[in-house]
Amino acid sequence: MSAARPLTTLRAIAVTATLPLLLTACGYGSEAKKEDDKGKVAAAGDTKLSASEVRIGYFPNLTHATALVGLQEGLIQKELGATAIKPQSFNAGPSEIEALNGGSLDIGFIGPSPSINGYVKSKGSNLKIISGSASGGVKLVVNPDKIKTLDDLKGKKIATPQKGNTQDVAFLNWISEKGWTVDPESGKGDVSVVRTDNKVTPDAFKQGSIDGAWVPEPTASKLVSDGGSVLLDETALWPDKKFVITNIIVSQKFLKEHPDVVEAVLKGTVKTNEWINANPDKAKASANAKLEAEGGKPLDAKIIDPAWTSILVTDDPLADTLKKQADYAVKAKLIEQPDLAGIYDLTLLNKVLKAAGKPEVSDAGLGTK
Fold it and tell me: What is the spatial distance between Cα 310 and Cα 138, in angstroms, rounded to a whole number?
């Protein structure tokens, strides 16, 4: 079923021994940033598809490696010919959904929680998940002087990126399975869940105002570089050690009006993931170059190296894990039981995969009928 192949072999998860450079793959509360990128320039003389341009959103996070590398290397643009890419960088799931719903964005890389929320709030009318992009890359990092075992988390202050975001939901579910209680609104309870912007989490950790954080990469590896210890890798909690952290979504209007453009983008993402898996070191350098263009400086090797190996790029949306994440949010009383029927349309992705000689992927019964 899966078309996934790891960047490198995932390391064994150790209890003693991950969504972003600036914010989580499902983070909240920021602006979109339009940018120049060599991948957006259409080749003169190429035949245009049904749209002269396509507006693609993503986050400057390693969990968005497909977008970072695909844009940096021009692999997506190559499939679009003379149809130009207009890339837009976001630091927040809701702001990207708002842009998609408002008609200023056509396609986006985004996490499962905002995908679910956006689909449900629009009553299934505004977006479709058309592909997977990444799995994993989320870790619980703690102050080893204060926390030595998982049971030591009781009574401690642990950061998540945002109330109701993908990591917050996962941590609340883990807490409930321990038999502990936390109020999902205030974050108060047996563990103090402190919703903290990933941009400031490392400083909060160094200052001692939090005792640890359940965060995506490369924030997790930044905390480790500041003296933290990985207490748990979230992949250890999932069957086959895989769970969706980044999807590719599309405006239903754009999909209906420009299926050829959407198909071309998916050809580009599939080829990008194949290139990443075949050239992990080059791809890591490419992603870092794109992050440098975004933030002004590249990630240190001590941060990007462990972060990169914990992320799996994949065409498979891992739809069954999205269903479970929705169930976790319901269990935490953050959302009501959602109707996710029709949230996926993998028709074009499976067409692209079949043409490339790759196995088709499943929508777990949540696809377009």
Answer: 8
151 CB contacts (<8 Å, ≥6 apart)?
Answer: none
What is this structure's pTM? 0.84
> Does residue 35 come out as left (phi exceeding 0), alpha (psi in the -120 to 50 range) or beta?
beta
Q: Is the pLDDT of residue 3 over 90?
A: no
d(CA 340, CA 331): 16
Amino acid identity, position 62: L
* pLDDT surpasses 70 at 90: yes
Give residue-wise pLDDT tens across range 109-166: 999 999 998 999 899 999 999 999 999 999 999 999 999 999 999 999 999 998 888 8
Beta pairing class for 53-58 and 107-110: parallel
